[in-house]
Amino acid sequence: MASVDETYLRRALELAQRAEAEGEVPVGALVVVVDRIVGEGWNRPVGLHDPTAHAEILALRAAGAALGRYRLSDATVYVTLEPCPMCTAAMVHARVRRLVFGAWDPRQGAAGSAFDLAHARALNHSLDVFGGVLSDDCGEQLKAFFRRRRAQPGDGPRTGEGTAQSSTSR
After folding, report:
1. Which one of 16, 77, 127, 137 has the fewest beta carbons within 10 angstroms of its own beta carbon?
2. Greatest CA span in the chain, whole angstroms?
3. How many whole angstroms separate alpha carbon 19 and alpha carbon 147?
4. Is 56 an active-site residue?
5. pTM, whole model, 2 decimals?
């Protein structure tokens, strides 16, 4: 039987598919408060012409609007890829209680991989982090996306996407 975290992360994988259908890097996120999804998002920086339109930021914005507050101290964020510094800092600022993510991002991850903003002593809040949940499924979704993108004729690597190391760059 799947855990609650796996169930919500599977929903995040569905949201990541929406990102891919829109030509975006497939990352999906959702915010859950008391067993209720209060915000969802998927990567949209290209389509929205907004460098901050990462899945986590959009999910946090939706949750804040739905709840009428920006402090999310009772929330869990689920995301298919370890959050970058911008997204992790936003979660710290919102006082998110828990972060659950799938694939680790050794190049840009800020919840324990490249950085650990989720537990930085200089910040006034830390997150309970659970990484690697459904990591194979989440990682394969990203790897497959970049394999397909590299295989497209006449469509060589874009900035940040040309190497295996950067396959999780947004």
Report:
1. 137
2. 48
3. 16
4. yes
5. 0.89
